[in-house]
Design brief:
- It is built from seven helices and five strands; from the N terminus they run αββαβββααααα.
- It is α+β, with helices and mostly antiparallel strands and 194 residues long.
- It has two domains: 84 residues, Roll (Ubiquitin-like (UB roll)), CATH 3.10.20.30; 95 residues, DNA polymerase, domain 1 (Orthogonal Bundle), CATH 1.10.150.
- It has a five-stranded mixed sheet with strand order 2-1-5-3-4, sandwiched between helices.
- Helix 3 crosses helix 6, helix 4 packs parallel to helix 6 and helix 5 runs parallel beside helix 7.
- The two termini are 34 Å apart.
């Protein structure tokens, strides 16, 4: 049995959180297992195992992807970023800081997916989004303990930090324009397509 496992294993090389990484495993095994077991990273969580809840989310080449349903071989030569890799030179990413400042957590199980999704989404924004856009951006992430309001506050804070409002007239006009632009972005970047 172990001979078959060894024969099936391959070294998959990819960039993980800014460092070249090699994982020797079955290339068809989920990326999530390699990240948690081989790389000892605890931020991506096993939630549903079907790519539905978002707890296992990571960034692959800057786009949100569900690591529980992506085979390890799919990241060969690519860049994978987990929650641990968002910080730069000891400083939290602005989205991470917004979640801390807004106390956007209860049990914390979903936070990996919420922060990863928000990070990818906010990086592509060129204008301040509407409230509907914010809710739409997070609709594929599940929170089981009911911290939705605090999570939304954290995302609003991250957006406000990126797009400081100059006056209410400008904000209202920007919101209308952004609603169209962020919806088209979401349609172009469905889950697990990178």
């Amino acid at each position: 049995m172990s001979a078959n496992t060894s024969a099936a294993s391959q070294a998959i090389v990819f960039n993980l959180n800014g460092s070249p990484t090699s994982v020797t495993a079955d290339p068809s095994s989920p990326l999530l297992f390699a990240l948690r077991n081989d790389c000892q990273l605890n931020s991506p969580k096993y939630g549903c195992g079907m790519g539905e809840c978002g707890a296992c989310s990571v960034l692959i080449d800057g786009k949100t992807a569900r690591s529980c349903s992506i085979p390890l071989k799919a990241v060969k030569g690519r860049t994978v970023t987990t929650l641990e890799g968002l910080a730069t030179q000891g400083q939290m990413h602005p989205v991470q800081q917004a979640f801390v400042d807004a106390q956007g957590a209860q049990c914390g199980y979903c936070l990996n997916g919420m922060i990863i999704t928000t990070t990818a989404w906010i990086e592509h924004l060129t204008e301040r989004p509407s409230e509907a856009d914010i809710r739409n951006a997070l609709k594929a992430n599940l929170c089981r303990c009911g911290t939705h309001l605090e999570i939304l506050d954290a995302v609003r804070l991250a957006v406000a930090n990126k797009f400081p409002a100059t006056d209410t007239t400008t904000s209202a006009n920007t919101t209308t324009t952004a609603q169209t632009s962020t919806r088209s972005l979401e349609e172009k970047t469905p889950w697990n397509r990178f």
